[in-house]
Amino acid sequence: MGSALALALVLRKKGLKASVVVPNSYPPFLAWMPEASSTIIYEEEGEKAKTVTAESELIFCLDFNNLNRLEGYGDVVKESGKPLILIDHHLSPESYFLHALSDTSASSTCELIHRFFVGMEWTELIDRDVAECLYTGIMTDTGSFRFSSTSAQTHRVVADLMDRGLVPERVYHHVFDTNRFERLQLLGHALGNKMKYDADLHTAVIPISLREKNRYHYRKGDTEGLVNYGLSILGSRMSIFISEEDGYCKLSLRSKGELDVNQIARQYFNGGGHKNAAGGRLDLSLDESLSKIDSVLQENRSLLA
Ligand code: 5GP
Q1: Beta strand pairing status for 21-22 and 40-41?
Q2: What's the CATH architecture for 2-176?
Q3: Which of 227, 251, 274 to mutate to test the pocket of ligand 1 (most atoms within 8 A of CB)?
Q4: 126 band by pLDDT with thresholds 50, 70 and 90
Q5: Cα 281 to middle of ligand 1, angstroms
Q6: What's the 67 CA to ligand 1 centre distance in angstroms?
Q7: pTM of the predicted structure, to 2 decimals
Q8: What whole-number distance in Å separates Cα of residue 104 and Cα of residue 274?
Q9: What are phi and psi of 52, to 5 degrees?
Q10: 197 Cα: distance to centroid of ligand 1 (angstroms)
Q11: Whose CA is nearest to atom 11 of ligand 1?
Q12: How is the chain split into domains, by residue range?
């Protein structure tokens, strides 16, 4: 959302027509973002998304590097035959992009969008709105500047954004201090009743069922960041969060140091991402997913213990 909105705002300032399309809805804690309400959500506005795709001359693919990450909208993009430009920081990009600014060492796609603006000599077009969009992506993707992907350059980019009107506190407030009470209750339930920690394998597993989500009036984004608690246990090297969805389970994996969850997500969970932050999907029930995770952990005992 941050990278796409920032790029769209700047392209519009250049006099171009730009639309942002996302495959499915974004969490409510991003709804305050400048121009967020003009985003076309493919799952809800499929025809509109198809029309803007057909009318476009160029498609920027931001913060993903494989069209299958777009679910149904991926086919629309593929079949449009439009030239695709990639700006992304995930591992193993596909080869069908006309041009690619792909750097896995970058903290976030928003940092790369800033690099793109510098290269295009468009930095004068970064106003407070653009800066807030970029900061939102950088701040969330670096876990508030904690993760190892945070570099001196990341901070230099943020300094530049502050020079252009960014007030970080405003973004923190919108993203972190707008919780519903039920969201915190769900968090308490997950940590108090659901999280299991295997000290031998240095691994935390946090499963949440659909019933539990319903009980706490779950809304998209409510479990965002939950997986990080499993990694904050002293000695923990890996945390796995499993969210039961309608007919499948979505997984979030986090790790520390050399333990490569991108590789684990690719090998066992139909997913991918980064070395220390990845995700995946199992077309199984929650119980079956937990058994699968258990057998993966046992199979990799020598790696984890
Ligand atoms: P999260 O756990 O926050 O959903 O995702 C962590 C990272 O893994 C993100 O960079 C995200 O793009 C990536 N990721 C999440 N789910 C999947 C997936 O199903 N497939 C792939 N390839 N990457 C994923």
Answers
A1: parallel
A2: Alpha-Beta Complex (3.90)
A3: 274
A4: very high
A5: 9
A6: 13
A7: 0.94
A8: 8
A9: -65, -30
A10: 22
A11: 273
A12: 2-176, 181-304
What distance in Å separates the CA atoms of residue 305 and residue 291, rounded to the nearest whole number? 19
Q: Whose CA is nearest to atom 17 of ligand 1?
A: 279
Question: Other CB atoms closer than 10 Å to residue 32's CB: what's the count?
Answer: 16
DSSP 195-246: -EEETTTTEEEEEE-HHHHHHTT--TTTTTTHHHHHHSSTT--EEEEEEE-S
Neighbours of 215 (CB within 10 A): 13
Average pLDDT over residues 297-304: 96
Q: Is residue 116 very low, low, confident or very high in pLDDT (cuts 50, 70, 90)?
A: very high
**CATH architecture type of domain 181-304:** Roll (3.10)
C-beta atoms surrounding 210 within 10 Å: 15
| Nearest protein Cα to ligand 1, atom 8 | 278
